[in-house]
Write a structure and sequence with these properties.
2 helices; 6-stranded mixed sheet; alpha+beta; two-stranded antiparallel ribbon; Metallo-beta-lactamase, Chain A
Length: about 120
């Protein structure tokens, strides 16, 4: 999206964006090291194309960004969003991780996969 100056215009946003090329692309991976810690990288699009979550199995911790929140999910009504894709990704990629996994969302309080599987009104 940052390399395409017309991306947001295609969705009716009159934004002037200077295109940029990323220095580094991060893709889904069973293990990638960041600052001495290894994370499994899960691609869970729907909030935006290419949304990523970072899982540390030894720490039972998921850095979830704007994918899954305590009692909610990321918006899917913005450019490139897709609600069905988001819900399917949460059900098939995040819920199977285990109830004990703590989720650090991009906004709001931490939660757990188990709590969201039982109570999240968006993804039942």
């Amino acid at each position: 999206m940052i390399a395409d100056p017309d991306f947001f215009r295609k969705f009716g946003f009159a934004l002037d964006i200077e295109p940029a090329q990323p220095d580094l692309l991060i893709e889904a991976s069973p293990g990638h090291e960041f600052l001495g810690s290894t994370f499994e990288i899960l691609e869970v699009p729907g909030h935006s194309p290419g949304s990523l979550c970072f899982l540390s199995r030894p720490d039972a911790l998921l850095v979830g960004g704007d994918v899954l929140f305590a009692g909610g999910v990321g918006r899917w009504d913005l450019p490139g969003g897709d609600g069905e894709l988001l819900f399917r990704g949460i059900k098939t990629k995040l819920y199977p991780l285990g109830d004990n996994i703590t989720v650090l969302p991009g906004h709001g309080p931490p939660t757990t996969i188990g709590e969201e599987r039982r109570t999240n009104p968006f993804v039942q």
